[in-house]
Design brief:
homodimer; alpha+beta; Aminopeptidase; Alpha-Beta Plaits; 2 domains; 9-stranded mixed sheet; 18 strands; 22% strand; hydrolase (chains A, B); Peptidase_M20_dimer (chains A, B); Peptidase_M20 (chains A, B); metal ion binding (chains A, B)
C-alpha cells in the first residue's frame, strides 16, 4: 500500500525541478506540420527518451516516415497491477501570426498574474508538453518515494498529432503488441473550469480535405477577361457557401447518418453545469450562436457534427490591389464527426458535392487530411469511476464527465486497432489559447495535475 | 510637310539604340503597389526625365504623396499645329509568383521565337514601359530627322496606374493647366490581333473594395468552438457567392442602372471580327463562358459590367493542415463598369449588401480602391478617323474600332476634369501576359509601334 501523502509531498518538493524539465522541453520548437522544424521534432523526441530513462523506463525512439514515435516500458510493478498505456504528443502547432505573441513562443516564462495565480507561457505549454509532463513527474514521485511504479506502465509519445498523425496507424499495425495494455491514459484534454476536473467520455472525430480549384491556365487581367472567364474564387465561394443551409445544417447528402440526438439524462447533467451560450461565446468576443439552430453552444461542440473552413486562399492577397482573376483558389475544409458517422463516406460525399458544382472546363484536386470516427466511452467503466473519485479528492469541486469537441484520432485507433478504451483526463483550460498566439498553462494545472496522476495511479492500483 | 519615308527609315535605323533605352527602363523594378519599391519608382521617374530632356522636352518630376508625376512640354512645333497630351505610366505590377517566370522579370531579354518573330521579355515590357517608349522613339525620329515635332506635345507619365492612381486626381485639380491639350493620346491598350491595329472607343470603369470580416477576438481551435462560433470564412463565402445569381447577373440592387444594351450596328461590327467564344476562352485554357448568360465573350468583356473577386484570404493557408477557426477573413472585390454606372453608388450598395449579410456580433472593415466611371468616345471624331487611317497604312490589315474591358481611370479623369477626349492606341497583344508571370512585348509591336506613332503624328498635323 502506497503512502499517498508522502507521494504528494514528494511531488510538491519536486515542483521547481519539474518546471526546469518542462522548460527544457518547451524550448524545442517541435512544429510537426512544417518541414523546416523536422530536426527540432527529432530533438524533442530524443530529449524525452533521455528523460524516460532517468525515470527507469526502457525507452526507444522508433523511426517513422515522419517524426519518431517513442515507446517506453516499465515492468517493475506489483503482481497483478493493471497495465496502462500513457499517450501524449511532443509536437506543437505553428506559431503564426508571430506578431500577436506577447512573449517568445519558444522561450517559456513563469508569469505571476496576482492573487496567487501563476501561468507558464509558450507554445506547447498546455498542448501537449505541459500535460504529458504532469504524468512523467507523477511517475518520478513514485520512483523517488517508493522505488517502483504502482502499475505496469507503457508510454507512447508521438510527434505528429498536430498534423493528423499520418505515421501512427501503420505503427500501430506493425507494433501494436508493444503498446497494447488494459486501457489507455490520454492527457490531452481539459478541465471543466479552474476548480472542476473533467473526464471526457465522448470525442468528436475528424475528416479533412484540401480543395484546389483550377480554372484558366494562368492568372488573368480582370479587365481583359472579367465577365467571360471562370473565376475559381467564385466557384469556391459557391461551394463553401452551399455547405450549410439557412438553419446551419450541413447540406451534404447522408451527412447526418449515424448522428443521434443526445439522451435526455446526459443533456440534464450538462445543463446542470450552468453553462450559457452568452458565457461560452462571450469568452471569445462573440454573442450570436452560429451553426445548427436549436442547440446550446455546449451541445453544438460536444455532440453535433460540423463542417468548418479552416483556411481559404486565392488571387492577390498582399498589400494594395491587383485586378487579377486567379488561376487557382483553394480551401482547407474539415468535418467534426459524432456518433457513428463514417469518415470515408463523408469524404466521398464531400468530393462528389464539390465535383457537382464544378464547371466543365475547371478541375479540382483534393488533398486528404485525417479521417477518424467519433468515440463514445461507457459511462460506468470501473477505471472511469476510480479516476473520477481520485480527481474529486484533489480538486475543490467533484470531477464531471463531459463531452469533447476536439478530435484525438489516436483514441479512435486504440479502440479500433487494439480494442483498448481510453481514459481522457487533462488539466488544460478553455482560455489556454492552444493553437493560438499566447498559449499558456496554469501553474495550478501543472502542479495539481502531477498530484492528480499520483492519486489516479494510486486508485487504479487498488 | 514632313518626309514620312525619311522619318520611318530613321526609326528603323534607330531600332537597336531604341531597344537599349527600353531595356534600361525595364531593369528598374518600379512596382508601385509595394512600398518596398518606392525608391525604384523614383528612379524610373528620374530616368524618364533625363530621357525626355535629351529629346528636347522641358521635363519635371512633380512630387506627390505617392510616386512622382512627370510633365514634359515641347512648344517647338508648326504654327496652328494641334496640341496633344501623351499619357503613359512607368509603374508595373508585382511579379509574384516569381517561380512561374521563365526569365528574371527585371532582366529583359530579346528572344527569337523562330519564323522571324522576336519578343522582349520582362515585367513592364508591354504594360506600359514598352508602349510608352514607342511614342518617345517616334518623337526621337522627328527630332533627329526634322529638328522639331509636328505637334505641340505635352507628356505626362504617372507612377501609380497599377495601384489605382491615388495621387492623380489631386494633381489634375491643382495642375490641370499644365497638361490640358486639345485631346490626349493614351498608349496603354492593345491590337485586335497580330496584324490588325485597334483603337479603343469604350473603356470599362472600375470600383474596388477590400472587405475584412472579423468574428471572434482570436483564432479558435475548431474542435473546441466549431459549430458554435461564427466562422468569418463562411460569412465571406456567403457574401461572395451571393454577388451573382444563377444567370451570372450581379445581384446588388441598382447595379444595372445606367447600363444599356450594345447598339445593333456596333454589335455587327464586332461580330464581323469573327471572334468566337471557343477561341477567346481556348487561349487561356477554358471553354465554358462564365458570367452573364446570353452574351458573347467579346460583349461580356467590352460592354457588360462585372463583379470579380480578385483575392481571398483567411485562416491557415500554409503547408499541411491546421484545424483553426480564423478570427478574420478578407476579400478584394472589384467591379468593372460600363455606360453610366455610378462608381460611388455601386460602392455604397456593395457595402450595404455586405453589412446586411453580417451577423450582429461580427464586424466588417472596408478599404476602398479605385473608383472611375466607364467612358465612351464619339465614333466619328476627326482625330479618331485620322489615326485609324494612319494605323491602317502601317499594318497588314485595316485598323478596327473596338471596346476595351480594362479600366484606364486617367481617361475618365481627362474627360471629367479637363473636358478632354482620349485617343486610345496601343500595340499590346492578348497573349502579352500583362499582370502575370512571363510578361512580354512583341518586337513587332515595339518597332511598328514607333512607326505607327510617326504616321499618326503626321496625320494629326495635317
Amino acid at each position: 500500500m502506497s503512502d499517498l501523502n508522502a507521494l504528494l509531498k514528494r511531488a510538491d518538493d519536486n515542483l521547481p525541478s519539474s518546471l526546469d524539465k518542462l522548460f527544457d522541453l518547451l524550448r524545442i520548437p517541435s512544429i510537426s506540420t512544417d518541414p523546416a522544424y523536422k530536426k527540432d521534432c527529432t530533438a524533442a523526441a530524443n530529449w524525452l527518451v533521455d528523460e524516460l530513462k532517468t525515470l527507469g523506463f526502457m525507452a526507444t525512439a522508433h523511426k517513422t516516415k515522419g517524426h519518431p514515435i517513442i515507446v517506453a516500458t516499465s515492468e517493475n510493478a506489483p503482481e497483478n497491477a493493471p497495465h496502462v498505456l500513457f499517450y501524449g504528443h511532443y509536437d506543437v502547432q505553428p506559431v503564426d501570426p508571430l506578431n500577436l505573441w506577447d512573449d517568445e513562443p519558444f522561450d517559456p516564462k513563469i508569469k505571476d498574474m496576482g492573487q496567487g495565480r501563476k501561468i507558464i507561457t509558450g507554445r506547447g505549454s498546455s498542448d501537449d508538453k505541459g500535460q504529458l509532463m504532469t504524468f512523467l513527474q507523477a511517475c518520478r514521485a513514485y520512483r523517488e518515494e517508493e522505488g517502483e511504479l504502482p502499475l505496469k506502465i507503457t508510454i507512447m509519445f508521438e510527434g505528429e498529432e498536430e498534423s493528423g498523425s499520418p505515421s501512427l496507424p501503420a505503427f500501430l499495425e506493425e507494433h501494436g503488441d508493444l503498446v497494447k495494455a488494459d486501457f489507455a491514459l490520454v492527457c490531452d484534454t481539459g478541465m471543466w473550469d479552474r476548480e472542476t476536473p473533467a473526464i471526457a467520455a465522448t470525442l468528436r472525430g475528424l475528416v479533412g480535405d484540401e480543395v484546389v480549384i483550377t480554372a484558366a491556365d494562368r492568372d488573368l487581367h480582370s479587365g481583359f477577361f472579367g465577365g467571360a472567364a471562370a473565376n475559381p474564387i467564385h466557384i469556391l465561394a459557391d461551394i463553401l457557401a452551399g455547405l450549410h443551409d439557412e438553419n446551419g445544417r450541413v447540406t451534404l447528402p447522408g451527412f447526418y447518418d449515424g448522428v443521434e440526438e443526445t439522451p435526455e439524462d446526459v443533456k440534464k447533467t450538462w445543463e446542470a453545469l450552468g453553462e450559457t451560450d452568452e458565457r461560452f461565446l462571450g469568452e471569445i468576443g462573440l454573442s450570436v450562436p452560429a451553426g445548427e439552430k436549436g442547440y446550446s453552444a455546449l451541445e453544438l461542440t460536444w455532440a453535433r457534427p460540423t463542417a468548418e473552413v479552416n483556411g481559404v486562399a486565392g488571387g492577390y492577397t498582399g498589400d494594395g490591389f491587383k485586378t487579377v482573376i486567379a488561376a487557382q483558389a483553394s480551401a482547407k475544409v474539415s468535418f467534426r464527426l459524432v456518433g457513428k458517422q463514417d469518415p470515408a463516406k463523408i469524404r466521398e460525399n464531400f468530393r462528389a458535392y464539390v465535383q457537382s458544382k464544378l464547371p466543365d472546363d475547371c478541375k479540382v484536386d483534393f488533398h486528404p487530411h485525417g479521417g477518424s470516427p467519433a468515440i463514445q466511452l461507457d459511462y460506468n467503466a470501473p477505471f472511469l469511476k476510480k479516476a473520477q473519485g481520485a480527481l474529486s479528492d484533489e480538486w475543490p469541486k467533484p470531477a464531471v464527465v463531459i463531452g469533447m469537441g476536439g478530435s484525438i484520432p489516436i483514441v479512435g485507433d486504440f479502440q479500433s486497432k487494439l480494442g483498448m478504451d481510453s481514459l481522457l483526463v487533462g488539466f488544460g483550460l478553455n482560455d489556454d489559447r492552444i493553437h493560438s498566439p499566447n498559449e499558456k498553462y496554469e501553474m495550478n494545472s501543472f502542479h495539481k495535475g502531477i498530484r492528480s496522476w499520483i492519486r489516479i495511479m494510486n486508485a487504479l492500483a487498488k
